[in-house]
Automatic annotation (TrEMBL):
Activity regulation info: Uridylyltransferase (UTase) activity is inhibited by glutamine, while glutamine activates uridylyl-removing (UR) activity.
Span of domain HD: 445-567
Name of the protein in its database record: Bifunctional uridylyltransferase/uridylyl-removing enzyme
This enzyme's EC code(s): 2.7.7.59, 3.1.4.-
Length: 860
């Protein structure tokens, strides 16, 4: 397979070498399928390419003082199925014109034979200059490997490169490079579509350690590091095992996609699981089982990476360790890191494990643990067992972790990272690395929980008070606010067990609180919060908050102001912890409105007083005077508006509508006004026009054509049969300058409504990848409200372009009147609620027909 080719004509050998590459890789695939051995495949693939490149070099007749060098991952002697082949053409001096042409021909043939080559052509001086400027070039040369040509020239480059390398600077640069890489991936390995090479816990974490080890002269294998005492034999075995898993995964990902693809996208997860012979369980897809394995490996890699980086730093940066400062009889501080005085401390005194984390919270100058402490912690994690959990002092210590004034976010992340949290609370251990395919969570269950705890913590911090001032004010006055951390820890802990996770989690939370000596009153609160943690968001986003019965029912559920406050704070933190795309200012306003209205009702107001009808009107009048409108000018318009209008719209909207319409209370031509949203980025649009059955459909079609999504719609019909509709719109791409499109919306929409031309139909759009691979079965439910005068229509479906238009068109076709629309988009999932009426809806058959028509349209 590696016999030399003597012809001077490069093109004449291209076809032969292409076949050699194709046949050789086919043989490697067959061998791998018969007996998967990732390391062997990577080495043999590199050897196959080595032989082909050497034969090409021989045929190229390049100057004798030149050489072909493998660099980067290929220089390491590892080559993935579709990775770039990184090479350096090293020259003794600047090439003459003929030699330059031969080099260009050679590079062209590399591509002709099917190799994706990343190449550079440099002299030794140029290599050293680039290496000094760019740590990436410096790193690539660390693993440089002679392939062909002048071997002494390559040896000279490597010797000069080694002599020029300043080890402390290289270490600091690689550590900073890793920090920047972590930042690009939000400092977590637990995103639902991780990059198995670049994400935290991926192959790059392992490669970084090898590069630093090579630069230090400590060897290029985990066994070599073990011989140097930098890792234990157990850690060496874990590093080898983790590396094999990640290599295997990346090899199969390349083969599956037939390209250099390192992202574990939803598109590939099921096929990857099959390739790895991973089967589904009764409650989880095969892809979910596979991804949980991946997350556990990534977690282990980040642990070992942190440990090894500290050990390497102690070798490379000896001045970095200062004189130890005693903390107590068991711990000291070294370079702002917590250090144990006895390596066997956690074995002898398992309770010291929790004491170590308490010290991290109590000493804000401590930024983590030394490598020695981390290793001791890792080796003793098995001591956190049933007896440990039953120990009253350990229970006291664990509760104290929630009660400290600082450090809670970091400490609970570390507790999870080092496997302590899942051992102390076994139910938490079951959801570590568990995926959530609900189309709006972007983190695994354990990471979402920790994110929610972090959001609660931010509410208590003065430096974040500007973010959500009401939350900060409420939590600062909330007695024993640490109970919210416990509720956050348990709110999703029962996911993946089957059944209602809220109800199952209530039992876990109660057992925890009772076991840990939390008072019956506080236990009831935590248990109730876990059971109802979804309720407030559902009511705020799906119910008509202008309906007194809705507010009255919610107030009856929460019973008192303490529960209301606790649920509001937990709900706020929970929604913000799902995904950056799910939370927005509009949802914050809905939650705040529900909280404030219910708070007033619990303080003794009637439902109408709680909504503040009279106060709203009085304040609206006062603001109208501020704009120069004389007293009483609003009366003709307001006489056409009923109580529901004033309860449904906030004061700012009432003032805006009145200023735009007070001089035309009797109607006339259609009026459209738009302005940037007063709540958050987005656009508010008001439409005032003669009402019609297809009005909502027309508006949905128009907005969709403009590329705008409807976040909220308030559909109101005046006493003289005019539509006074309000919308909150947003550009899903986030690129729109809303102020610039105000004139377009106002002119074009008004003109279309006046002319009553053809209805705009939204263009077809593509479903997201997540929806394609984890589809949602549409759900439609219609039920009467408590008075029996209206009906509540609930729709759940995968979000897509034109969804709202399709719903509106069915309602128009069935001659159903629409009164309000609550649009809730949770990531890729739409959960919309409509208040509707119609003369035929009293008949069951009509309701069944409407549900069937909606389902048929949604499934198209």
């Amino acid at each position: 397979m590696n016999s030399p080719v003597g012809s001077d004509d490069l093109r004449s050998v291209a076809e032969t070498l292409r076949k050699r590459i194709t046949d050789g890789r086919a043989q490697l695939r067959e061998k791998f399928d018969a007996k998967p051995d990732p390391a062997r495949l990577l080495c043999e693939n590199a050897e196959l390419v080595d032989g082909v490149l050497r034969d090409l070099w021989s045929a190229a007749s390049l100057p004798p003082n030149s050489a072909l060098v493998a660099v980067g991952g290929y220089g390491r002697g590892h080559l993935y199925p579709h990775s770039d082949v990184d090479i350096l053409i090293l020259l003794g001096d600047e090439p003459e014109r003929a030699a330059r042409q031969r080099i260009e021909q050679l590079v062209g043939v590399f591509w002709d034979i099917g190799l994706e080559v990343g190449h550079s052509v440099r002299t030794i001086e140029e290599c050293l200059e680039e290496s000094e400027r760019d740590v990436t070039v410096q790193t690539n040369l660390l693993e440089a490997r002679w392939l062909a040509g002048d071997e002494e020239l390559v040896a000279s480059l490597l010797a000069q490169h080694r002599a020029a390398l300043h080890l402390p600077s290289f270490f600091i640069a690689k550590r900073a490079e890793q920090e920047q890489r972590y930042n690009r991936f939000n400092d977590t390995p637990y995103s639902l579509e991780p990059n198995c090479k670049e994400s935290p816990g991926g192959l790059r974490d392992l490669q970084t350690l090898v590069w630093i080890s090579l630069a230090s002269g400590l060897g290029s294998s985990w066994e070599a590091l073990a011989e140097q005492g930098l890792v234990t034999q157990e850690e060496c075995a874990e590093l080898n095992k983790s590396e094999r898993f990640l290599q295997n995964l990346r090899i199969r990902l390349h083969r599956l996609t037939r390209r250099r693809e390192d992202r574990i996208l939803f598109d590939h997860q099921e096929a990857l699981a099959r390739s790895l012979s991973i089967s589904a369980t009764s409650t989880r897809r095969a892809s979910e089982v596979m991804m949980q394995r991946y997350y556990l490996v990534a977690k282990k890699v980040t642990q070992l990476n942190a440990l090894l980086l500290q050990n390497l730093a102690s070798r490379i940066l000896p001045s970095g360790l200062d004189t130890p400062t005693p903390i107590d009889a068991r711990f000291c501080k070294r370079q702002n890191l917590l250090d144990v005085l006895d390596d066997k401390l956690f074995i002898k005194e398992p309770s010291a494990i929790l004491d170590a984390f308490l010290l991290l919270e109590q000493h804000d100058e401590l930024k983590g643990m030394t490598a020695r402490t981390l290793r001791a912690l890792w080796q003793s994690r098995g001591r956190v067992d049933a007896a440990f959990r039953r120990n009253p002092e350990n229970r006291r210590r664990f509760v104290a972790l929630f009660q400290q004034p600082q450090g809670i976010t970091h400490v609970f992340r570390w507790l999870n990272q080092y496997g302590i949290l899942g051992r102390y609370i076994p139910a938490f251990g079951q959801i570590v690395g568990q995926m959530q395919h609900d189309l709006f969570h972007v983190y695994t269950v354990d990471q979402h929980i920790l994110q929610v705890m972090r959001n609660v913590r931010r509410m208590t911090m003065d430096e974040h008070a500007h973010e959500y001032p009401l939350c900060t004010r409420l939590i600062s006055a909330f007695d024993r606010n640490w109970l919210l951390y416990i509720a956050a820890l348990f709110h999703d802990i029962a996911k993946g067990r089957g059944g209602d996770h809220s109800k199952l989690g209530m039992s876990d939370a109660r057992h925890f609180c009772e076991d840990h000596g939390i008072s019956p009153e506080d236990t009831d609160l935590v248990e109730w919060l876990v059971g109802e943690h979804l309720t407030m968001s559902q009511i705020a986003q799906k119910s008509d908050l202008s309906d007194p019965d809705v507010i009255r029912g919610f107030a009856a559920l929460v019973k008192d102001e303490r529960r209301l406050t606790a649920l509001y704070l937990l709900t706020h933190a929970d929604i913000r912890g799902t995904s950056p795309k799910v939370w927005n200012g509009w949802k914050a306003k809905l939650l705040e409105d529900l909280f404030l209205t219910t708070q007033r009702l619990l303080r003794g107001d009637t439902p109408v007083q709680a909504k503040g009808l009279a106060e709203r009107q009085d304040e609206a009048r006062a603001r109208l005077r501020f704009y120069g409108l004389v007293e009483g000018v609003e009366r003709p318009l307001w006489e056409e508006l009923d109580t529901v209008y004033f309860m449904r719209h906030d004061i700012d909207e009432i003032v805006w509508h009145t200023r735009m319409l007070y001089y035309r209370p009797a109607g006339g031509e259609a009026v459209v006004k738009a302005r940037p949203s007063q709540v958050e980025q987005g656009l508010q649009v008001m439409v005032y026009a003669p009402d019609s059955q297809d009005m909502f459909m027309r508006l949905c079609g128009f907005f969709s054509r403009q590329g705008l999504s409807i976040l909220d719609a308030k559909i109101h019909t005046t006493r003289h049969n005019y539509a006074l509709d309000s919308f909150v719109l947003m550009d899903p791409s986030g690129d729109e300058n809303y102020r610039d499109i105000v004139p377009l919306i106002e002119h074009d929409l008004a003109q279309r409504l006046r002319n009553q031309g053809p209805i705009d139909k939204p263009g077809s759009g593509r479903l997201s990848r997540q929806v394609r691979h984890f589809p949602i079965t549409p759900e439609v439910a219609i039920r009467p409200d408590e008075r029996g005068q209206h009906y509540i229509l609930s729709v759940a479906a995968a979000d897509r372009p034109g969804l709202l238009f399709d719903i509106a068109s069915v309602l128009a076709e069935c001659r159903v009147n629409l009164h309000t629309a609550k649009i809730a988009t949770l990531g890729e999932r739409a959960e919309d609620t409509f208040l509707i009426s119609g003369p035929e809806l009293g008949a069951t058959s009509a309701v069944v027909r409407l549900e069937g028509a909606l389902l048929a349209r949604l499934q198209q």
